[in-house]
Amino acid sequence: MAKLPLEGTRICDFTWVWAGPFATMLLAMMGAEVIKIESSQRPDVTRRAQQSAAQQSTSVDPQLVKSNDFGWMNSCKKCCSLNLRNPQGVALVKEIIKISDVVTENFSTGTMERLGLGYSALKEIRPDIIMLSTSVAGRQGPRKNISGYAIQSQALSGADSLTGYQGGPPKDPGGNYGDLITGTHGAFAILAALYHRSKTGEGQYIDLSMTETMVNSISQGVMDYVMNGRLRQRQGNRDDFMAPHGCYRCQGEDKWVAIAVSNEEEWKAFCQAIGEPAWTKDDKFADGYSRWANQEELDKLVNSWTKDYTHYEVMEILQRAGVAAGPSVNVEELVNDRQLHQRGFFVELDHPNPEVEKGLNSRAPWRLSALPDIVYQRAPRIGEHNDYVFRELLGLSEEEIARLTEEQVII
Amino acid sequence: MQNGALSGLKIVELGHLVSGPYCAKLLADLGAEVIKVEEPGVGDEARRREPFLHDKADPERSGLFLYLNTNKLGVTLSLKSKTGREILHKLVKEADVLVENNPPSIMEECGLQYESLKGINPRLIMTSITPFGQSGPYRDYKATELISYHIGGLGYITPPVVEAVEQYPPLKAGGQLADFCTGTTAAVATMVAVFYREATGLGQQVDVSEQEAVASFFRSAFSAYSYTKTTQGRSREARRPAGVERILACSNGYISFAPIQEDHWQRLLEMIGGSELAQDERFKDAAGRREHGEELTRVIGEWTRQHTKEEVADLIQGADFPGVPVQDVNEAVDWDHFAARDFFVDIDHPKVGKLRYPRGPYVFSKTPWRASRPAPLLGQHNEDIYCGRLGYSKEQLIRLRSAGVI
């Protein structure tokens, strides 16, 4: 079988919740050996989070909990269980770090140091170690102790202030965007550091801030203030110059299509595609400038056409004419999207709890022409790879492992 | 000169707007050499996008372009001409990576699809970024940030609940979140391919679909859906019980709070209305707070409106309750915390002068993020690259320019 790109790279992974684990999952999907450090006393919170009504567990044992949250962030990883409050546990994890290329963590500031696992300690174990530390606001600076996740970083960055209906209050961008964009930057930073190390032998420490990833993503708003001292206003689905540009009602209950007409050529194609109704000849819509100035009225007229079609039909009609359009999909529609299916985007994986049925995950968000058939593994159970880590990798005997289990070092 | 983490990597970029250029910027900012190739006269579409310095529209004054193209060399080249394509082949021959975000049909028309280019450079890694990928029924469909954000699933949950579904459409978030998600994803994928090549000597095409990059960010929802087989509507009725509103008005702005633990709530309610409120039957557990979300929002909102967002943030953080002020862009840019972290760096540019730009979102201890050069002027490095590296004479350059090749 073809070698995966990151085979041979080992990551000792202390991350939990979302931002940290997403970074290590992207790398695990590409063949890095990611060893998640957990314990049944301190499981990753996502093992318990967001249990759907269909999956409510009465058990508190994280191994038996039916939450689906953990699975979608931890595919392809291994897991060993250690009590880091026990000095023997810390000693053992240092042995793992010694044979690892990268250490990742996203605890609150100071936690790793308190465990005796700060970067200076890790450098003594392995001078060329690469350590990625992910947090809301970074590990240095007056607000380094803010704890939290996407919500806080989005609010602090200015991203919330730019999101919302015209004249309305700020809104949170959807999903856990802040966590996932940060995880993506984290994976990139790790690979950049590994590349540098492959050329120079030098490891390093990386301080990754969620708030800073969000500021990176709202560039026009930032540059308008830097250059012109101006604050961009919330504008709903509208654009600086394009019109029609927005979401329009379609047939069915709460169905919408997004349409963006970028230039005169597309406007002509749009008018033709919708059957050249008389209103399109109105002077008010004669050029891009006028269309933008009159978009309130224009939007109503576009709606008068879209309302008779489904959002997928509008996409087909307009795309055939060379106009950008697409449905605003809910999760059911996303899961049934034919493009995503044709490209094999979705992957069904077992749940770590054997009592729970398979669930949907997705492959890596890219396709590699040299590796078209990558296989993905389910997320691990707590301590599932203890035997592999302690016996095979660290060379501990059966007796030692039994003793450590009894003394609740391995737990 | 201090080396970046990616010093030695050679990239050619055929990018426009955000996703392609941001992918290449991430690599350039960490020390890779990036040669950005633009259409003569016209250049990257981003040059025509707001904001402009002092509102003077000019291809060298776009804040979007200036930010997205730091640390790159810039040449002009027409890919529509045979000579232009031959010159591109020469650039590609010496490159490790080609990053492009053009429609697949255009790349094919220009004879620049991966199958052709790998003949010129078998080790080439070609990162191709498109709205829907290089294959499939939507392959040739167009998309902008608006469409990508919505068709990847994030629009319908921004915000998750609205007062009246007919009146409030699903929203695109401010900024270009879908495009930046995609550019960053492509940078990871590019590095993955670099590692693959180090191990095997093989190049390849890296096919990045913006729809997939965005849908990947929506993963918690589709994973949950595969178990529950239910979708929630956006109306208050569909979402009942909706829980508490997370962003609330204060006297001078907004506060964003995200309580997770039970004791967070106890402390907050105690602070607002003493033990009477903390023990209120309606709000004493998670189920109750969901059930009575609107009332609770009202109670908390009455309190927050009497204080500034800074006061509210201080009070609730003092009670160890997760919550932060919703900062406006100026508050974010001028934040003392960012200043202490040197998050904004000055970069001097020959036309717009010195401006502050956000650096990358990380601090590397050994190979720090650096601004070695500003975004290039259109065709700024034509002579350096075409004469200096490819051996064209200055006279040839003039002829190429007259012929519209550069």
In a nutshell, what does this entry contain?
Chain A is of the alpha/beta class and 411 residues long.
CATH superfamily of the largest domain in chain B: Crotonobetainyl-coa:carnitine coa-transferase, domain 1
CATH superfamily caption of the largest domain in chain A: Crotonobetainyl-coa:carnitine coa-transferase, domain 1
Low-confidence stretches of chain B: none
User: Rg of chain B from C-alpha positions?
Assistant: 26 Å
Number of helices, where a helix is a run of at least 4 consecutive DSSP H or I residues of chain A: 16
**Overall pLDDT confidence of chain A:** 94
Put simply, the count of helices of chain B is: 18
CATH T-level topology of the largest domain in chain B: Rossmann fold
Instruction: Please indicate the count of domains of chain A.
Output: 2
Binned, the helix content of chain B reads 40-55%
Strand count, sense and barrel status of the largest sheet of chain B are: 6 strands, parallel
The biggest beta sheet of chain A is recorded as:
6 strands, parallel
Which CATH architecture of the largest domain in chain B is right? 3-Layer(aba) Sandwich
Strand order within the widest sheet of chain B? 3-2-1-4-5-6
Task: Estimate what percentage of residues of chain B fall within beta strands.
Answer: 5-15%
Give the overall shape of chain B, derived from the CA principal axes: elongated
Which blocks of ≥5 consecutive residues of chain A have pLDDT under 50? none
As a whole number of angstroms, the C-alpha radius of gyration of chain A is: 25 Å
Strand tally of chain B is 12
Proportion of residues in extended strands of chain A = 5-15%
- Biggest chain pair interface: A-B, 156 and 145 residues
Feature tags:
heterodimer; A: 411 residues; alpha/beta; Rossmann fold; formyl-coa transferase, domain 3; 2 domains; six-stranded parallel β-sheet; three-stranded antiparallel β-sheet; 16 helices; 36% helix; elongated; B: 406 residues; 18 helices; 41% helix
